[in-house]
Design a protein that fits this description.
heterodimer, A: mainly alpha, ABC transporter involved in vitamin B12 uptake, BtuC, two-stranded antiparallel ribbon, 14 helices, 76% helix, globular, B: alpha/beta, Rossmann fold, six-stranded mixed beta sheet, 10 strands
Chain lengths: 319, 254
């Protein structure tokens, strides 16, 4: 009896957990693809997915945190290019690689800080501030690069550290997994996470309890800046070079995966696991379309459909 | 000779926004186990005064004393630490968060590394929900968004009691509620006196606060136009003051 009711409680907890639905959707896609798509469940194909996922994913988990606190960021795609260009410019002037690395990450943090400060200090919608920021930092990248791509130096240890292999697993995926776990723990288990949810859920209530919501928002913008710059460096290490227009459109892919993962665009609710799965779903969809021989144009149409269908499913749950 | 100090003393508080005088030389005192109705029409300065006491706004001039000690409230966190809890209409809790996350919002039980002790929080939250209030909430893991407006207010007040806050600022707590729910919340608040808590009940609806309050402070266009013990004033007089803001008229009436 007692065992049975325990089991029921566990079952109820699982079925009511916020990430259950999206995990089931992923499972469904995986089963379908393995059964009906040739060459899907091969290690070689899995590797392709594991290499494709991390860059949008690393940006996406940061955006998740920010969106839960009630803001979003359209400048991430520009930071993905700006970070690496800062890094290469510094390396080219003879500054040691690891110092350049840290400085380029700090550049991302700085961009995030500016976004957050402007949004909170003058109470301007983040849509507008980060739209401006997206153009400013893309412009800065174009000026910095003179419009031409930049290539990594011959000896570039980051190649192995950010985009090598560990066993047979692409390192970039391990970075993504690691960062996702860290953000997940912070969001779900630390007081800071509780403050993030409160800030986006009801700013006035949070303030009445002594939470400095502006600080929370600024800090989340800084996390997004840091992760975007890092994602750019991963991409640089992976490709060996970077174009000034790298990362264009990434803000939308990132937001798409966050929304598919169940995070509310109005703030107050969301999950890192959801985004993690959301990025996988988008990437697997792309992969399956390629394997099925569909022309590349189909990709956007499918992602669009997924977003809308998933959001309808979520709204049904809330009724 | 020991003199009992008032829980809260407001002395000549003024607040200007550029040239606009939101509050002008407002003073009053409040004791523990006293419920004060802070009444006035829209734009009378009630919210500004509440924001000042809850640490969200700094007064342009004037002093605030808590238990006889002069304080300069630096932030809402500072006010909370001094035992002052603010509860707004309908928005004192976060709908998208569950009960225990709400109850401990801003005061999470954490270990040395800042991680929440969830089981402890759930246990304590269940205690509050089952012992302090009986409003039919079983699990502290339930989403707050599923509660009624009255239940939310009750939870917010019970939370303040759990943290042993001494002064409750209730900012239009019954505004968004149905008549029945409002009655429940009012009953709940009237029981706070037993807990030795001072209450400032802000409203423009005198009906809600009249039966409950021990005293009234009436604001009109930023000025205090009346300060009465309940036995010295009738509801009609209060309504006149709220609308016209004139003491002369009251004196005539008396």
């Amino acid at each position: 009896m007692d065992k049975n009711s325990n089991f029921k409680t566990i079952l109820r907890n699982i079925s009511s957990h916020k990430d259950t639905k999206i995990l089931l959707i992923l499972l469904g896609i995986l089963v379908f693809s393995s059964l009906f798509i040739r060459n899907f469940n091969t290690w070689r194909n899995l590797r392709v997915i594991l290499i494709n996922v991390p860059i949008v994913g690393i940006v996406g988990i940061g955006v998740t945190m920010l969106m839960i606190s009630g803001e979003f960021d359209l400048s991430v795609g520009s930071i993905v290019a700006f970070g690496p260009f800062v890094m290469l410019s510094l390396v080219n002037t003879g500054i040691p690689i690891y110092i350049s690395l840290i400085l380029s990450l700090l550049a991302g943090v700085f961009v995030g800080f500016l976004n957050g400060f402007i949004v909170t200090n003058w109470n301007i919608p983040s849509l507008i501030v980060t739209l401006g920021a997206a153009m400013i930092w893309r412009g800065a990248t174009l000026i910095l690069s003179q419009g031409s791509p930049s290539t990594i130096p011959k000896h570039f240890p980051l190649r192995k550290i950010l985009a090598g292999e560990l066993g047979k697993v692409p390192v970039q995926f391990i970075w993504f997994l690691l960062l996702a776990i860290i953000l997940w723990i912070i969001l779900e288990y630390s007081y800071y996470g509780n403050w993030v949810f409160a800030t986006g859920g009801n700013r006035m209530a949070a303030e009445a309890r002594g939470i400095n919501t502006s600080k929370i928002k600024i800090f989340n913008f800084m996390i997004v800046g840091l992760l975007s710059s890092f994602a750019g460096l991963v991409q640089l290490s992976q490709l060996g070079s970077i174009f000034p227009l790298q990362g264009s459109g990434m803000e939308l892919s990132a937001i798409a995966s966050v929304v598919i993962g169940g995070t509310l665009i109005s703030g107050g609710a969301g999950s890192i696991i959801g985004t993690f799965v959301g990025v996988l779903i988008i990437s697997i969809t792309n992969n399956v379309l390629i394997l099925a021989g569909a022309p590349g144009y189909w990709y956007q149409l499918f992602v669009g459909l997924i977003i809308i269908v998933v959001v309808i499913v979520y709204s049904l749950r809330r009724e | 000779m020991h003199e009992e100090k008032a829980l809260l003393k407001i002395e000549n508080i003024s607040k200007n926004f550029n040239k606009f005088k939101a509050l002008e030389n407002v003073s009053f005192e409040l004791d523990s186990n006293e419920i004060m109705g802070l009444v006035g029409d829209n734009g009378a300065g009630k919210s500004t005064l509440i924001k000042i006491i809850s640490g969200l706004l700094k007064p342009s001039s004037g002093n605030i004393y808590i238990n006889g000690e002069k304080v300069i409230l630096k932030s809402s966190r500072h006010s909370i630490n001094l035992g002052i809890e603010t509860i707004h209409q309908e928005s004192s809790l976060v709908d998208t968060m569950n009960m225990y996350r709400n109850i401990f919002m801003g005061r999470e039980i954490t270990n040395a590394f800042g991680f929440m002790k969830k089981y402890k929080m759930i246990e304590e939250a269940n205690k509050i929900l089952n012992e302090k209030i009986s409003i039919g909430i079983q699990s502290s893991e339930q989403l707050v968004g599923n509660l009624s407006g009255g239940q939310k207010q009750a939870v917010a007040v019970a939370t303040a009691m759990y943290f042993k806050q001494k002064l409750l600022l209730l900012d239009e707590p019954t505004n968004a509620l149905s008549v029945k729910e409002a009655q429940q919340v009012l009953k709940f608040i009237s029981e706070l006196k037993k807990e030795n808590i001072g209450v400032i009940f802000v409203t423009h609806n005198i009906n809600h606060v009249y039966s409950l309050a021990d005293k009234f402070v009436i604001l009109n266009r930023g000025q205090k136009v009346g300060d009465f013990k309940k036995e010295n004033v009738t509801m009609e007089q209060l309504i006149e003051l709220i609308i016209y803001g004139k003491e002369k008229r009251i004196k005539k009436l008396q």
